[in-house]
Design a protein that fits this description.
Length: about 1250
C-alpha cells in the first residue's frame, strides 16, 4: 500500500470535517440537510450553501487522487451533492401549481415555500405562516444547478424536469420587479411582514439567468430539447435595477452584508468593478465588528433587547438595537473567498486568521463555526457607550452549516486544492472584465417595390421583404407568442412563458425554427399597438435609444442585427420621397455611426455568418408528430392584439408558392389571422356646413354655456358625454383634472342631451340611427369621432350601426378605422382622444411603471391633494394600473392616455439617463403634466386653455422632448405653425433645443427656424414697427410647406417682452419645476434626520413628521426619504412646497451648532410666513407698491418672494435665516456661538 502524500492527508482531514459537520446530518432518503439538530426543517438556501463544501471536496479529491480509494471518495461526495439537489428539486416539483400561478401573479400566496420537511419533502408551514417568497433562494438553487452541471454532475434526468427548470426561469425572470421577504426571510427590517425589493434577490436572479442561458441540463449527453433558454432583456432588466440600487440593499436597509454574495462569489452579478469596490467598502465600514459583520444596521435578531415572544418589532424599538447588533462570522468566509477570486492574498490571510480566532472547538477537536456572536445581557449598557469593546458570546446554531461550508470551501481554495475555475466553470468571475466594443448590424428593408424605388433614388440599395426569402421577417409580437410555447408541459399543467413585450435584445437575434431562418422587427415600429409609432421623429428617437442600449448591454456571441422596414407611413405628405427625419437617420446609419453606436448596414444574407443566432428547438415536432395542437391555440383576446399587416401576409402567400406550406408557416398564419376590417366609414364631406349634431354647440360661447348648464344639473365628468372639443373648451386653466365627485347620471344626462339638441325619435329618446346618418355628412374627422364617441357612450362598443347594410360594422370597428385615418393626418389630440375611447394598450405600460418603481421611484397620478392624487408604490397588473389612472384622471380620456404616454417616456429616460432623476424619490405625473402646460403657456404667451389644447396637439416626439427639458431644466424653444388638415387650418406646436446663445438649432431637414435674435430686434423696434401682424417663414427644402406665425401669439409676445424684464419669473418657474419634480438638494434627507433628533418633530401644513421616526429609520434609508416626501407632498402648490424645503434647509444649519434642542414641534410654514412678513415690510419700506407685493391668495406668500433668488441681500435664504433665528432664539447658546 502506497504511503499517503501530505496533500492527501490534508484532504482526508477536510473529509472528516465535512463528514462530522455536514454529511452526517444528511437524510438517507431525501438527501436534504436539516438546519440543525434542533431545527429539522430544510431551508432551500441553507441546503445549497451547505452542500458547496461537499461539492468542492469532491472536485478536490478527483483532482488530487493518490489512489483508487480517492476516486471512489470523489464519486461518493459528488453523489451526495446530486442527492441533495434532486431532493430540493422534488420539493419544488411537488409545488408545480404554485410555479404556474406565480408566473402570472407574482403574489406571496403563490410562491414556492422556503423550507420543507427534511424526511418527506413535504411543506411544513402554511402559505401565509412564513415569509416564503425569497427569490434569492430559488435563484441560488438554479445558479448552482448550472455550475454543478457544467462541472460534470448529472442532476436533471428527464424532459419533464427540464420543462420544470425552464418554468423556474420564468419564475425568477421577473425578480427585478418582485418585492420579496429577502435572504433574512422577514422583509422590511421592522419585521412587520412587509415585502420589499432586495438587491440580494435581484442580483442572484440575474446570475442564475445568465448561468442557465443556453445550458444543456443533460450535460454532454444532451441535445437541443434539453437546453434552457433565457430572454436577454429580462437579464438586463435585473442588471439595470441592481446597478441603480447598490450600494443600498433595499428600501429599509441602507446597507446589508448579504450583498457580498451578489458582488462576489457565488453570483458575480455586478459588471462595474468600481461599484463592486464601493459596495464592499460600505459593508466593511458600516457593518464589520470584532467577530464578523452585522447583517444590517439596527438588526435586532438574537440581541439581548429583542423580545423572543414577539416576531415583529415596534417601529420605535429599532433604535434599541443600534450598536448591539449580532455579528456573523459567515461574512468573513465570503470575504476570504472574495480575496481568492480577486487575487488579494492579504485579504485572504486577514480573514482566514480572523475566522480561526472565532472558531469553537467541539468534540473530537473539530473546529465549528457558530452562527453569530451576541452581546451578553449584562454588558449591553457598556457596549452602547463604547461600541465593539465588549467580549461577545457565541449563540445560535453550532455549527452553522452555511458558514461552515463556505469556510471549508475557502480553506480548500486557499491551500490550492481547488482553483477558482473549478467551482466556477461558467466563468462568472470575469463579470467585471471590460467587454469588446459592439458593432450593430442594421438591415433596411422596403415594405413595397414602390418604396424600394424611392429609396434607390435617394442612394440606398435595399431589398423588399419578399426579396430576403428564404429568411422570413415577422413583427416582434409574433416572437412573444412563439416564446409563449417555451416550457409547456401538459402532464404538469405548465403553460409556458407568459405573453410579454419583447425587448430589443430579443429581436436583435436571428432565429432558426425548423429549417427556416427568422428575423423580427423591433417592437417600437408596430403601429397597431400604440400611436407612438405614427410619429416618424419618435421612431427615430426610439431607434437611437435602442442602438445605444444594444451597445452597452449586448453580451452574446455574434453581433446584434436590427431589421428595420421602411413603410408608407415613413414617407412625406406627397408619398414621393422619404420623410426628412427618416432620411437623415438612414444617412447616419449608412455613415456608420448613430446614437453613439457603431453601425454596419447591409443585406440580411450578408449578416448570416456574423449575427447572433438561436435555434428554437422547442418549435420542433415532438414524439406526437405535430407540435401545434389545439391546446396551444390562442384565445380570442390574443387575436385582438394581432392586427393584420399586408406585407406579412404577402410574405406568407409567397412562402406557399416557393416552398411547401409547412407547419411553421401554418402556425404563423394562425397568429396573424385577423381579417382586416373593410372600409365602412364614409369619407368626410369636405363641406363647410356643420351637421345638426354640432349646430347647437359650435361656438365658444355655446360650449361654455353648455358646460355651465351641465354643472347646474350636477352632471359630473361632462367630458364623458360631450364631444372632446366641447370638453377641452370648458377646461379651466392648466389644471387638467376636474373635481373628484361622482353622481348618478341617468336623469341628468338626459337633460344634458336635450341641451345638445341631439336628434330624437318618437319616444323622445336619442335617435342613434339618425346619429349614424350624420356620419355621412360630417365635414371633418373630429366630428366623426364625436358622433362615434356619443354612440360608444349610448350604445356601447359592440353595437352594430347598420351602416350600408345590416347588421353593419360595430362602433368599435368604425372607431378603429377612424384611428387609422386620423393617424395618417397626424392630428395628435384626436389620435390620443380615439386611443382613449378604444382603450388602446399603451406599449408596455405596466413594464414602464415597473421600471420606474424598480429604480426606487414611487409614482403618483392625478393632481394633488389626495385622494385625487393616487400613489403607486408596487408593481400592479396592466388592467388595475389603467383603472387607477382613469380614476385619477376623472375619466378624462385625453388626460388618462397622456398620463400613460408620459409614464412610458419617463421609463425611457430612467433607463438611459438615470441621472435626470437624482434626489427624486416620488415622480408626480399629474403635476408634471400641469407644469408642461404651464411652460407652454409661458413660452407661447397664451391662455391656460390654449396651452392645454397645444399640449394635447404635441406630437409624441415633441411631448418627449418637452418632458426632457422639464426634467433637465434646460431652456427650450417653442415654435408655432399652421398646416392644412382635413380642409381646415390646424395649429401645430413643436419643441426645439436652445443653443448656447439662446437660439434654436436648425434642423438638418432644412426647415428654417425663427431665431430669437429676430424677436430681440423687433422688441427694440416695436414702436417703429406697429404694423407687424403676420410673419411667413418659407422653407427652402420643404415640399410646399409653409410656416405661419399669427398676430395673436407673436404680437402678444412682443407686448410682454416690452413690459417685462426677461428674467422676471425665472425663479418662480424654477421653484415650480423643482417642487413638481420633488427635487431637493443633495443630502437633504440626512440633514432632516439630524434636525429631528434635536426637536419633537416638523409640522408642514398640519401634518407632523415626528422625531420618533429617527428611532425606526437610519439617515440613509430610502424609506426615511419617502416618509419625508409624503409629508411635503401634502402641499398642493409646487412653488410653495419648494420654499418650505428651503426653510427646512435653513433649519438644518442649526444641527452643526452646539444646540441640544431647538424646541418641540416646529411648524415650518410658520417660519416661512415670518420670513414672508419680514420680506414684505422691508420691500414696502424700500418703496415697492402693493401690486408688486401682491400675495398668493391660497398661501399668503408674496409673489415677489416666490421669484426671488435664494442668495443675495433680498434672497429667500436671507429672510428665512432671520426667521429661523427669531423662532429658535430661546434655544440658542448664550455664549461663544452666534448665527453668521
Amino acid at each position: 500500500m502506497r504511503s499517503r502524500s501530505n496533500s492527501g492527508v490534508r484532504l482526508d482531514g477536510y473529509g472528516r470535517l465535512v463528514q462530522q459537520t455536514i454529511l452526517r446530518h444528511q437524510d438517507a432518503v431525501t438527501g436534504l440537510l436539516p438546519a440543525s439538530a434542533d431545527h429539522q426543517d430544510a431551508w432551500v438556501r441553507d441546503n445549497v450553501y451547505s452542500i458547496l463544501a461537499v461539492w468542492g471536496l469532491g472536485l478536490a479529491y478527483r483532482k488530487n487522487a493518490d489512489r483508487d480509494e480517492d476516486k471512489a471518495k470523489a464519486y461518493e461526495l459528488e453523489q451526495s451533492v446530486v442527492k441533495l439537489m434532486r431532493g430540493l428539486l422534488q420539493c419544488m416539483m411537488r409545488q408545480v401549481d404554485k410555479v404556474e400561478a406565480f408566473k402570472y401573479s407574482q403574489s406571496t400566496r403563490d410562491c414556492l415555500h422556503a423550507k420543507y420537511n427534511t424526511h418527506t419533502c413535504a411543506t411544513v408551514v402554511g402559505d401565509h405562516e412564513w415569509g416564503h417568497l425569497q427569490m434569492d433562494a430559488t435563484s441560488l438553487y438554479l445558479l448552482m444547478l448550472a455550475q454543478m452541471t457544467a462541472s460534470g454532475l448529472h442532476i436533471i434526468h428527464s424532459f419533464d424536469e427540464v420543462n420544470f427548470i425552464q418554468n423556474l426561469v420564468f419564475y425568477i425572470e421577473a425578480a427585478y420587479k418582485t418585492a420579496d421577504f429577502g435572504i433574512w426571510e422577514r422583509g422590511d427590517k421592522t419585521n412587520q411582514g412587509i415585502t420589499e425589493l432586495n438587491a440580494s434577490s435581484v442580483g442572484m436572479a440575474k446570475a442564475a439567468l445568465e448561468a442557465l442561458d443556453e445550458l444543456d441540463l443533460f450535460g454532454a449527453k444532451g441535445g437541443p430539447q434539453s437546453v434552457i433558454r433565457v430572454l436577454s432583456d429580462e437579464v438586463q432588466h435585473c442588471q439595470s435595477i441592481l446597478h441603480s440600487m447598490l450600494p443600498r440593499a433595499s428600501t429599509s436597509k441602507e446597507v446589508d452584508a448579504s450583498v457580498l454574495s451578489v458582488i462576489s462569489y457565488p453570483a458575480f452579478a455586478v459588471e462595474d468593478s468600481e461599484l463592486v469596490e464601493i459596495t464592499k467598502q460600505e459593508i466593511i465600514t458600516k457593518l464589520q465588528g470584532r467577530y464578523g459583520c452585522c447583517r444590517f444596521l439596527r438588526d435586532g435578531y438574537r440581541t439581548p433587547k429583542e423580545d423572543p415572544k414577539r416576531l415583529y418589532y415596534e417601529p420605535a424599538e429599532l433604535k434599541l438595537f443600534e450598536n448591539i447588533e449580532c455579528e456573523w462570522p459567515l461574512f468573513w468566509a465570503y470575504l476570504m473567498i472574495d480575496g481568492i477570486f480577486s487575487g488579494n492574498m492579504e485579504q485572504v490571510q486577514e480573514y482566514r486568521e480572523a475566522l480561526e480566532g472565532v472558531l469553537i472547538k467541539g468534540k473530537n477537536g473539530v473546529h465549528l463555526l457558530p452562527e453569530l456572536y451576541s452581546v451578553p445581557p449584562d454588558k449591553v449598557d457598556e457596549e452602547y457607550r463604547n461600541p465593539h469593546t465588549v467580549d461577545r458570546i457565541p449563540m445560535g446554531k453550532l455549527p452553522h452549516m452555511w458558514g461552515q461550508s463556505l469556510y471549508i470551501l475557502g480553506c480548500l481554495m486557499a491551500e490550492g486544492f481547488l482553483a477558482p475555475g473549478e467551482i466556477d466553470p461558467l466563468n462568472r468571475r470575469f463579470a467585471t472584465v471590460p467587454k469588446p466594443d459592439v458593432v450593430v448590424q442594421v438591415c433596411i428593408l422596403a415594405e413595397t417595390e414602390g418604396i424600394k424605388a424611392i429609396l434607390q433614388k435617394e442612394g440606398f440599395d435595399v431589398e423588399t421583404v419578399a426579396d430576403v426569402y428564404p429568411i422570413r421577417v415577422q413583427p416582434a409580437r409574433i416572437l412573444s407568442h412563439i416564446y409563449a410555447r417555451l416550457g409547456r408541459n401538459k402532464q404538469m399543467c405548465l403553460t409556458g412563458r407568459p405573453y410579454r413585450h419583447m425587448g430589443v435584445l430579443g429581436t436583435s437575434k436571428l432565429y432558426k425554427i425548423r429549417k427556416s431562418i427568422f428575423t423580427f422587427t423591433p417592437q417600437f415600429i408596430d403601429q397597431q399597438q400604440f400611436y407612438l409609432a405614427l410619429d416618424n421623429k419618435m421612431i427615430v428617437e426610439m431607434l437611437r435609444t435602442d442602438l445605444s442600449y444594444l451597445c452597452s448591454r449586448w453580451r452574446m456571441t455574434g453581433r446584434p442585427t436590427i431589421t428595420f422596414p421602411i413603410s408608407h407611413t415613413m414617407l412625406d405628405e406627397t408619398s414621393s420621397s422619404v420623410h426628412p427625419t427618416v432620411l437623415a437617420m438612414l444617412q447616419k446609419l449608412q455613415d456608420g455611426y448613430f446614437g453613439g453606436a457603431r453601425i454596419q448596414t447591409g443585406k440580411l444574407s450578408e449578416f448570416l455568418t456574423t449575427s447572433c443566432r438561436t435555434h428554437l428547438s422547442f418549435m420542433d415536432p415532438g414524439p406526437e408528430g405535430k407540435v401545434y395542437a389545439k391546446s396551444y391555440r390562442l384565445s380570442s383576446d390574443s387575436f385582438e392584439k394581432l392586427d393584420t399587416e399586408e406585407w406579412l401576409h404577402g410574405l406568407q402567400r409567397m412562402v406557399r408558392e416557393k416552398d411547401t406550406y409547412d407547419e411553421v408557416a401554418q402556425y404563423l398564419d394562425h397568429l396573424l389571422q385577423h381579417t382586416t376590417p373593410q372600409s365602412n366609414l364614409p369619407p368626410t364631406t369636405q363641406r363647410g356646413g356643420l351637421s345638426r349634431f354640432r349646430a347647437a354647440v359650435h361656438t365658444t360661447r355655446d360650449l361654455m354655456s353648455l358646460a355651465s348648464k351641465a354643472k347646474d344639473l350636477h352632471v359630473q365628468n361632462v367630458g364623458m358625454y360631450v364631444p372632446s372639443r366641447i370638453f377641452q373648451a370648458s377646461q379651466q386653466s392648466v389644471k387638467l383634472l376636474s373635481s373628484p365627485h361622482e353622481h348618478d347620471l341617468d336623469s341628468k344626462s338626459h337633460a344634458l342631451y336635450a341641451e345638445m339638441n341631439l336628434p330624437r325619435d318618437e319616444d323622445g329618446n336619442v335617435d342613434c340611427k339618425a346619429l349614424v346618418d350624420q356620419l355621412c355628412i360630417c365635414p371633418t374627422l373630429q366630428e366623426q369621432a364625436d358622433i362615434l364617441y356619443m354612440l360608444h357612450i349610448l350604445k356601447g362598443p359592440e353595437w352594430h350601426t347598420g351602416l350600408d347594410s345590416e347588421p353593419g360594422p360595430t362602433v368599435k370597428e368604425l372607431l378603429t378605422e377612424l384611428y387609422v385615418r386620423v393617424g395618417d393626418t397626424r392630428q395628435w389630440a384626436l389620435i390620443r382622444y380615439i386611443s382613449g375611447i378604444l382603450r388602446k394598450k399603451v406599449e408596455a405600460l405596466d413594464e414602464a411603471c415597473t421600471d420606474l418603481l424598480s429604480h426606487q421611484k414611487h409614482l403618483t397620478v392625478g393632481l394633488p391633494p389626495e385622494p385625487r392624487e393616487k400613489t403607486i408604490s408596487t408593481p400592479i397588473p396592466y388592467e388595475e394600473l389603467v383603472r387607477l389612472i382613469d380614476e385619477a384622471s376623472e375619466k378624462n380620456l385625453s388626460v388618462s392616455i397622456l398620463t400613460q404616454e408620459i409614464m412610458v417616456y419617463l421609463a425611457m429616460y430612467i433607463r438611459t439617463q438615470p441621472a435626470l432623476f437624482a434626489e427624486m424619490f416620488r415622480i408626480r405625473i399629474g403635476l408634471i403634466i400641469q407644469v408642461m402646460a404651464t411652460e407652454l403657456a409661458h413660452s407661447l404667451r397664451c391662455s391656460a386653455g390654449e396651452a392645454t389644447e397645444n399640449l394635447m396637439n404635441l406630437s409624441p416626439s415633441d411631448m418627449k422632448s418637452l418632458l426632457y427639458h422639464i426634467l433637465s431644466g434646460k431652456e427650450f424653444g417653442v415654435e408655432k405653425s399652421v398646416r392644412s388638415v382635413d380642409s381646415s387650418l390646424t395649429t401645430a406646436v413643436s419643441i426645439c433645443d436652445m443653443g448656447a446663445v439662446g437660439t434654436t438649432r436648425p434642423e438638418r431637414t432644412g426647415l428654417v427656424r425663427l431665431k430669437s435674435e429676430i424677436k430681440q430686434q423687433l422688441d427694440k423696434r416695436r414702436q417703429s414697427l406697429p404694423g407687424i401682424s403676420v410673419v411667413l417663414v418659407l422653407s427652402a427644402q420643404s415640399a410646399g410647406h409653409t410656416e405661419l406665425l399669427g398676430k395673436d401669439s407673436f404680437s402678444s409676445m412682443l407686448e410682454d417682452q416690452g413690459s417685462k424684464d426677461s428674467r422676471q419669473g425665472q425663479w418662480q418657474r424654477r421653484r415650480r419645476l423643482d417642487g413638481a419634480l420633488n427635487r431637493v438638494p443633495v443630502g437633504f434627507y440626512q440633514k432632516v434626520w439630524k434636525v429631528l433628533q434635536k426637536c419633537h418633530g416638523l409640522s408642514v401644513e398640519g401634518f407632523v413628521l415626528p422625531s420618533s421616526t429617527t428611532r425606526e429609520m437610519t439617515p440613509g434609508e430610502m424609506k426615511f426619504a419617502v416618509h419625508v416626501e409624503s409629508v411635503l407632498n401634502r402641499v398642493p402648490q409646487p412653488e410653495y412646497r419648494q420654499l418650505l424645503v428651503e426653510a427646512i434647509l435653513v433649519l438644518t444649519m442649526l444641527v452643526d451648532m452646539e444646540v441640544h434642542t431647538i424646541g418641540g414641534i416646529i411648524p415650518v410654514e410658520k417660519i416661512l410666513h415670518i420670513a414672508n412678513d419680514l420680506f414684505y415690510e422691508e420691500q414696502k419700506a424700500l418703496g415697492a407698491d402693493e401690486h408688486m407685493l401682491e400675495r398668493d391668495p391660497s398661501t399668503g406668500i408674496c409673489s415677489l418672494l416666490y421669484d426671488s433668488a435664494p442668495s443675495g441681500r433680498f434672497g429667500t435664504m436671507t429672510y428665512l435665516s432671520k426667521s429661523v433665528a427669531l423662532y429658535v432664539y430661546d434655544f440658542l447658546p448664550t455664549d461663544g456661538c452666534s448665527m453668521q
